[in-house]
């Protein structure tokens, strides 16, 4: 049976692609915050690896700032859109996009002064595989570079856990149902999308994603076990202090 990522991002990519497109307007500020946070750690990247780059929201922004970016993703549809966006912004010579699996990072040879994985694109697999992905990220990170992870904070999410919701998503209606398993620390979300019409809404489709949630201390320990020596934790790319109720978690891990 194919992994859920194949169904969500390759077989039926348009269900989530609308959500990616809706977040494009946030990419400039997020990238500025990322660069400022890295500068605080003494890292000014010239070469970056965007792991699970999607439609290239941050890769294009970094390329526009003079960073040579390699974006990898398993979704051909998202990569095609990323290339289109790079052409539109005039940075096609500074960013490249490649279909590749994060589970194969250890097989690559090149290194980067920035490796990043944003917007809860980590934790897709079983614990052993997730740890292997982290080791691959560590091997791809230059000695004077950094890895940046941005994902949900398990402690903050569970403190205000909601099993269902209707999040705003542009001009679409999205209905989400969520199930959390404390035995595995995995959260399965079913996302159903409806497009607005003159007569109401038409059902566009659904996707199911199943992600391992991490407590900050747990992910920090896994980063150290993967080969990083210094691990800093924040509540966002803006460098906000991590608190108990923070719903986002940013990790800056340095060799």
Overview features:
2 domains, seven-stranded mixed sheet, Rossmann fold, alpha/beta, 33% helix, N-terminal domain of TfIIb, single chain
Question: How do the helices and strands line up, and which of them pair or pack?
Answer:
Layout: H1 4-11, H2 14-22, H3 27-40, E1 47-51, H4 57-64, E2 68-73, H5 76-89, E3 95-99, E4 112-117, H6 127-140, E5 141-152, H7 154-159, E6 164-165, E7 168-169, E8 172-181, E9 186-197, E10 200-212, H8 216-226, E11 230-234, E12 248-254
Parallel strand pairs: 1-2, 1-4, 2-3, 4-5
Antiparallel strand pairs: 5-12, 6-8, 7-8, 8-9, 9-10, 11-12
Characterization of the model:
This protein has helices at 4-11, 14-22, 27-40, 57-64, 76-89, 127-140, 154-159, 216-226; strands at 47-51, 68-73, 95-99, 112-117, 141-152, 164-165, 168-169, 172-181, 186-197, 200-212, 230-234, 248-254. By secondary structure, it is of the alpha/beta class. A 7-stranded mixed sheet has the order 3-2-1-4-5-12-11, sandwiched between helices. Strands 6, 7, 8, 9 and 10 form a 5-stranded antiparallel sheet that branches. Helix 3 packs across helix 4 and helix 6 (127-140) crosses helix 8 (216-226). It is globular and about 55 Å long.
């Amino acid at each position: 049976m194919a992994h859920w990522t194949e169904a969500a991002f390759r077989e039926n990519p348009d269900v989530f692609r609308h959500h990616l497109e809706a977040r494009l307007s946030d990419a400039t500020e997020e990238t500025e915050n990322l660069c400022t946070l890295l500068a605080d750690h003494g890292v000014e990247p010239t070469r970056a690896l965007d792991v699970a780059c999607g439609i290239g929201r941050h890769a294009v922004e970094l390329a526009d700032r003079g960073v040579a970016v390699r974006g990898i993703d398993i979704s051909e549809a998202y990569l095609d859109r990323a290339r289109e966006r790079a052409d539109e912004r005039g940075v096609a010579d500074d960013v490249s996009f490649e279909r590749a699996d994060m589970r194969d990072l250890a097989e690559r040879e090149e290194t980067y002064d920035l490796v990043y994985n944003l917007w809860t694109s980590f934790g897709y697999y079983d614990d052993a595989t997730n740890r292997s992905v982290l080791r691959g990220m560590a091997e791809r990170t230059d000695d004077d570079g950094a890895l940046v992870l941005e994902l949900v904070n398990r402690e903050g999410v569970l403190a205000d856990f909601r099993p269902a919701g209707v999040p705003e998503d542009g001009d679409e209606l999205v209905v989400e149902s969520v199930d959390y398993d404390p035995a595995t620390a995995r959260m399965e979300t079913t996302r159903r999308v409806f497009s607005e019409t003159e007569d109401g809404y038409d059902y566009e489709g659904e996707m199911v994603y199943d992600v391992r949630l991490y407590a900050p201390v747990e992910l920090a320990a896994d980063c150290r076990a993967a080969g990083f020596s210094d691990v800093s934790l924040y509540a966002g790319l803006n460098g906000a202090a991590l608190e108990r109720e923070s719903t986002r978690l940013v990790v800056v891990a340095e060799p």
